[in-house]
Amino acid sequence: MTTHTPRDEQDASIIIREAAGTGTLLNVSGNSTKAPMGRPNQTDASISSSAMAGITLYEPAELVISARSGTPVLEVMRVLAAKGQELPFEPMDYRSLLGTRGDPTIGAIAAMNISGPRRIMAGAARDSLIGVRFVNGRGEVVKSGGRVMKNVTGLDLVKLMAGSWGTLGFLTEVTFKVLPKQERMATLVIRGLDDRQGIEALSMALGSPFDVTGAAHVPDRDRRGGSTLIRLEGFRVSVDYRMNELKRLLKRFRFMDLLEGVGAEALWQSVRDATLLTDRGERAIWRVSTAPTKGPDLVAQVARSLDAQWFYDWGGGLVWISTAIDDDAGASVMREATRTFGGHAILVRAPAEIRSTLDVFEPQPEALMTLTRGIKASLDPAGILNLGRMYAGI
């Protein structure tokens, strides 16, 4: 299969325009570190942003950075760190979970709206994304947004492209708002709580005025207890004060430890990248979003029917669940659980033959699916970009 690696926006425009004219289906990618995700899409050729790299604008005083879509995320983070800044949404790295290699690109972060534990405070990637340039399915270059956040009327293409998984256009440049890097990180670890108690503690912490930036609950292997993790970040004096107040607020939960340094960083990285589930063998991985207080009930229903392992992030609003790979990898049980308790489930990891026969993303109501088809048709009328990656035929 032919792989196109345009060096600039004009190259990409020509490649896509010619593909649209011939009906050539294109797989849109960066460095393919997340290629095993989504439905196996129908393709005749690939177009990769891997040759389109480099920081195009960085204004530390304005807290804004722009980069070509193929720029490695690590390069963006290195440039920001040199000025004491960071991407506020703490993007997840899927490589360990998916068993892939290469350097994740900043374009993929935008295209898949990838966020980490800090989303509960800083929002998702799309909330920091303030500008995009992309080539649509007609081969037209489109620019939306800019260097400042502002209200817009009409269709917000910046937010539309975030999480579109390359189905609406080939991103060539992205612009993010950034934040100063926090001086100190400290994690309160409460031990021995079951799922419901853990989510209760997280809800109390998140409802407090102490600016929690990480809230996760990791059950023990026997599921009788677990570790409840509450992270604070900021200036040292501020973290000290807020941590002491948080301990007072949660004193009835008793068994508390304070974790800092390399150990704490590694722990949150394992939460961020869901590597807490990678030692379960060759199993399917689901990413379920629901109301935090519904998380334990949803998990309990799933566990009654499936051999499942799990942990909670985002205060219980995000549940990572691993299931055995057999039949539908637990899809029917998972869909029934989201119908019962609300939310949506994405099948993140499973063999291609399973992903090709299932709804990898939560099925949309027909009215919303009609809207999705209409947006796809307006930006990619020939249907050549990542066809079927998210939903069959779209």
TrEMBL record:
Q: Which GO terms describe its molecular function?
A: catalytic activity; FAD binding
The ranges of region (Disordered) come to 27-46
Q: Where is the FAD-binding PCMH-type domain?
A: 1-181
Q: Which UniProt keywords apply?
A: FAD, Flavoprotein
Q: Which Gene3D superfamilies match?
A: 3.30.465.10
Which superkingdom heads the taxonomic lineage of this protein's source?
Bacteria
What the entry lists under PANTHER family is as follows: D-LACTATE DEHYDROGENASE, GLYCOLATE OXIDASE SUBUNIT GLCE
Q: What is this protein called?
A: FAD-binding protein
